[in-house]
């Protein structure tokens, strides 16, 4: 399929008809979004300003690797065709969009297409390296131009929180960073892959430790228990009573009871004869 350049879109247009096409089935994306919202795991509290454009950093949690996040950047900008829109003075809702994500899904399936069509944020080109120059002939052979999950969830989050994030009054609650500091918050492709590799390594080590701990516990349970003081001769070992010793104890106890309960012969009292006549 030939790649065509599309007109830029506002946030609402993008969520309704991505790149001017019929909206695909997003039920799985929506389900993932609801789960993240319930866990309060989506974060967006930083932005920067470059001339008249604004870039927001949205951290999206990985569903397969707990504790790992991907950085999604959404840039809002204006052009001559919308420069006179009166709503631009108090909100970013009618600004146009560009995107970036370091999610492996986006990198392998869409980054090169977004770059070719002008939807990839220019100042973040270098974050993707050579991957953004190679068309996804294997992972996206039809060159479909559509949502990546991380970008869809980030945009949906911004839209649902537009009064707090996309209005100039609401943005005061966010942290505005200098451009250099903002860019430092965004990892490049190689760093993400290194972090994922480290994450997998840590998970593997954790499983190995759990396995060794389990085997050690099983080994302890299989060996007879001993007291170190008994082994060194300071304490006499406790001998578990056998059936015969228990029977002997029972018989001796019975004999003691019988001995105590035996009837003793009563001695007759002899009266002393009086010496007086």
Order of helices and strands: HHEEEEHHHHEHHHH
Mean pLDDT: 81
Question: Order of strands side by side in the largest beta sheet?
Answer: 4-3-2-1-5
Strand content: 5-15%
Radius of gyration: 40 Å
What shape does the CA trace take? elongated
**Helix count?**
10
Low-confidence stretches: none
Question: The biggest beta sheet, please?
Answer: 5 strands, mixed
Judged by helices, strands and strand pairing, the structural class is alpha+beta
Total beta strands: 5
In whole angstroms, the N-to-C terminal distance is 153 Å
Helix content: 40-55%
Task: Describe this structure as you would to a colleague.
This protein is of the alpha+beta class and 277 residues long. 40% of the residues lie in helices and 12% in strands. The protein is built from 10 helices and 5 strands. The chain has a 5-stranded mixed β-sheet with strand order 4-3-2-1-5. Helix 2 crosses helix 5. It is elongated. It starts with 10 loop residues before the first helix and ends in a 16-residue tail after the last helix. The model has no long low-confidence stretch (mean pLDDT 81).
Which keywords apply here?
10 helices, single chain, five-stranded mixed sheet, alpha+beta, 277 residues
């Amino acid at each position: 399929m030939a790649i065509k350049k599309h007109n830029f879109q506002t946030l609402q247009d993008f969520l309704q008809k991505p790149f001017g096409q019929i909206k695909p089935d997003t039920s799985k994306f929506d389900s993932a979004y609801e789960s993240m919202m319930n866990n309060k795991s989506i974060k967006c509290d930083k932005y920067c300003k470059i001339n008249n454009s604004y870039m927001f950093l949205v951290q999206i949690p990985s569903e397969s690797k707990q504790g790992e996040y991907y950085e999604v950047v959404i840039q809002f900008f204006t052009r001559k065709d919308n420069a006179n829109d009166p709503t631009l003075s108090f909100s970013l809702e009618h600004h146009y969009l560009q995107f970036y994500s370091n999610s492996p899904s986006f990198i392998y399936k869409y980054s090169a297409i977004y770059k070719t069509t002008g939807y990839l944020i220019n100042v973040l080109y270098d974050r993707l390296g050579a991957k953004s120059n190679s068309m996804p002939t294997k992972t996206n052979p039809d060159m479909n131009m559509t949502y990546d999950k991380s970008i869809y969830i980030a945009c949906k989050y911004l839209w649902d929180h537009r009064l707090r994030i996309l209005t100039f009054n609401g943005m005061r609650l966010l942290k505005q960073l200098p451009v250099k500091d903002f860019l430092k918050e965004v990892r490049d492709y190689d760093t993400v892959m290194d972090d994922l590799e480290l994450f997998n390594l840590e998970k593997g080590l954790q499983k190995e430790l759990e396995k060794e701990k389990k085997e050690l516990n099983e080994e302890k349970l299989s060996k007879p228990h001993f007291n170190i003081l008994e082994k060194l001769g300071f304490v006499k070992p406790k001998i578990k009573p056998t059936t015969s010793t228990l029977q002997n104890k029972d018989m001796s106890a019975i004999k003691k009871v019988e001995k105590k309960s035996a009837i003793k012969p009563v001695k007759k009292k002899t009266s002393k004869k009086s010496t007086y006549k």
